[in-house]
Amino acid sequence: MSGPVSSPVSGGRFDADAVGVLGPWAKAVPVSAWGATGADWVDGVGAVDGAPPVLSDLPTPVLTLDASAVAHNTAAMAAWARGAGGPAGRGVDLAPHGKTSMAPALWRAQLAAGAWAVTVATPWQLAVALDAGVPRVLVAGPLLDARVHALAAQALAGGSDRQVLVWADGADVVAATAAARAGSGAGTAVEGSPPLDVLVELGAPGRRTGARSVEAALGVARAVAAAPGLRLAGATGYEGALVHDASAASLGVVRSWLRELRTLHARMREEGLLSERLPGGAVLSAGGSAYFDLVAEELADLHDPLGESGPPTRVVVRAGASVAHDDGFYASVTPASRGTGPALRAGLHGWARVISRPEPGLALLDAGKRDLPFDEGLPVAQAVRRGGRGPARPLAPEEVTTTALNDQHTFLRLTGGADHLAVGDVVRLGLSHPCTAFDRWGLLPVLDSADGAGGDEPRVVGLLRTVFG
Questions:
Q1: Which of 142, 328, 434, 435 sits at 20 to 30 Å (Cα–Cα) from 289?
Q2: CATH topology of domain 14-69+347-430+433-468
Q3: Helix, coil or strand: residue 144
Q4: What would the CATH number be for the domain defined by 85-330?
Q5: What is the DSSP letter of 230?
């Protein structure tokens, strides 16, 4: 999919009406906004000219979210999921990984677009999701905190549409999970609380978590089936821990692992280990943001949550970075890079001001490691707004290279036309790895379009609140 798409997030207002009074805690808004509510500031109430804020009103450094890109990506992923697997497949469900943004407003937008669930990584993130009213949460790890078990039990007692699914990769993890649940009083103190659903995690030797073989995973499945208060709900894993690029060899590794996951699911079914009372059927889940196309190719034919062709089974993809995408790592490995998935657009951009030209060919910006991600590649200078205003002039890769980041500085080496960058100019930076971009900002201004599609001065149309603790 490459054309424009519509989505429930197209307005981009997000948390503007809920953030309350702005102040020093919100480094992404100008000091002139302090004392105003988020809604009033976005709407221009109290502004000298009565106009809503625009990009040039924002301080630097700043991280912005592009509403048009998020709308496109959310709708594109929903459309892809409906048709996943092509003629031989039945589509898949989405449970996007919420740890990417830890922004409940984005989660709600993805659920409104058709996502089946939201995925999280830790007990605390589960608590945030439950507090935000997310009805179905997949925890990509074990739940060993008795207090969060109690919170989950209360949520599950709230209705048949609520579900929490956790992972286990060893009999010891199963025992610890069951003990934590028992210690929480779940199933006794909370009347009507159903069993906790557990997915067996398949890994690979020498890699991250996960049972090291199908046979080992079957042993874990048997332990879950026998544990009090737990219910075996399916199989899962994360193929992104196996490889880190889109070479033919790496794609082959992912395919081989997905076939082992399929085998594990079949063996669990053959042994009668999977519960017959699972809402919507057994869950078979894989697929981060890099290889979800392969998940569809290898598993989508099993997606049958209504049980029309056999025991109900739900194939669930957890791509989380897709909501914001990037201009670096994911742009190089996402299915679109090989023509097998939806075309996504970068929704996060850094904006930093030139604050020093101490020698020819060198410019220093006012953003650094405190502001921008750098673990999967350094930010890339994409365009410049002279004096921080007006149209953004593209910067060619051969003109400018990011060579280093300090805590609060970015080093740009310049050639040709880019050597005319002047103190006060504002550079738009393309970023790599949204998972380590969102966590640096508690509040993000939302622009109508970061590329200036709506005019030379992008408008601030909303605010997005993140919850990283």
A1: 142
A2: Lyase, Ornithine Decarboxylase; Chain A, domain 1 (2.40.37)
A3: coil
A4: 3.20.20.10
A5: E
Calpha distance 32→59 (Å, rounded): 10
Quick check: pTM over 0.85?
A: yes
Give the residue, 3 or 429, on which the prediction is more confident: 429
Domain boundaries, the chain: 14-69+347-430+433-468, 85-330
- Residue-wise pLDDT for 236-279, tens only, equals 999 999 999 999 999 999 999 999 999 999 999 999 999 888 88
Q: Tell me: the pLDDT tens digits for 108-142?
A: 999 999 999 999 999 999 999 999 999 999 999 99
Our CA dihedral for 323, 319, 109, 467, rounded to 10 degrees, sits at -80
Q: What is the per-residue pLDDT across 365-394, written as a single tens digit (0 to 9) for each?
A: 999 999 999 999 999 999 999 999 999 999
* Residue closest to 320 by CA, chosen among 306, 333, 330, 308: 330
Instruction: Name the DSSP class of 199.
Output: E
Name the residue with tokens 């939302």.
446
